[in-house]
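Dear Dr. K.,

Following up on our conversation at the group meeting, I've run the structure prediction for Transcription termination factor MTEF1 from Cucumis melo var. makuwa. I'm pasting the input sequence below exactly as I used it, so you can double-check it against your construct before we proceed with anything downstream. Let me know if the numbering doesn't match what you have in your notebook.
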Amino acid sequence: MYNLFLRIILLRSPSSVFSHGFSKSLLKSLRFLSTSSETVSSPKSSSLASNVVQINNNRKAVISFFENHGFSESQIFDIVKKVPLILSVNPETLFPILLFFQSKAELGTVEKTVATIKRFPRILGWNLSVGPNIELLKQIGVPDSNISTYLQGQPKIFLTSSVRFKEIVERVTEMGFSPQRLQFLVAVFALRSMTKSSWDKKVEVYRKWGLSEEEIRLAFRRHPMCMAFSEDKTNGVMDFFVNKIGCQSSFVARKPSLLSFSLKKKILPRGYIYQVLLSKGLIKKHANIPMFVKISENRFVEKFINPHKEQIPGLLELYEQKLMDSRR
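The predicted structure tokens came back this morning:
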């Protein structure tokens, strides 16, 4: 009952603090929270009064905990504003995950820890699964630097039940990924984002384009995120390269990173230029298709448009028009 009461109070009260601003220190603002009539008005029982005291003491303890571990007022403010319910947490439960972040998980600095919490605040409530999941990765040889990269950039990868996380890791290992490479975690992230039924549907999309089971597995090993795109996106890209450009479907399986580029904003405008140059005999069929898509905008104009301005007047204008059309 106390925990429910506490959560109700905290869900309401942070807005009171933030609406009044933080012209004074964070602790003074929180002191306002403790005495605000909006938070609790005239407790009618000793039990209710006792709960209020416990809530206020807990808030002070949480703030003190962060201060004692090197967090500045502004950093504490950022965390409390992002995760108001942090004020309801027993500080003792925060210590293991904070220790893990700053020493074991290679986040190292308070700044990186705050950034991670702000990016994905739910991680504070999942310390029981985060630790075992990272320990599992360490046990199989995933480098600390790779774990740190994903913990900072995509912390939700670790917010999975230990049982499911282990199943995903085992599956990725069976597929031939090396734990020493960052690609291993990319594959874990991709599989975590979908259910088995979602995976099966995406496999079926590739099968309809004539890819074998082995070709699909090869594509996933080379670029795991190729299985994370929507079925519409995959069909659109496959249709362009197979039906418009005339590539074999196996070509895309060998170059699955092509699927990561925007069909509308990059593949189609540049594909148009490819078809124009091909029709004029200025390039060979299927030559440098990955480069056509991957290189920077300036490099694309420099390499594929400027050299052919004289042979094809208005080529740059045609390309720019295609780019404008893609933004509509």
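Two things stood out to me. The longest helix spans residues 46-68. Residues 261-328 form one domain.

Best regards,
J.T.
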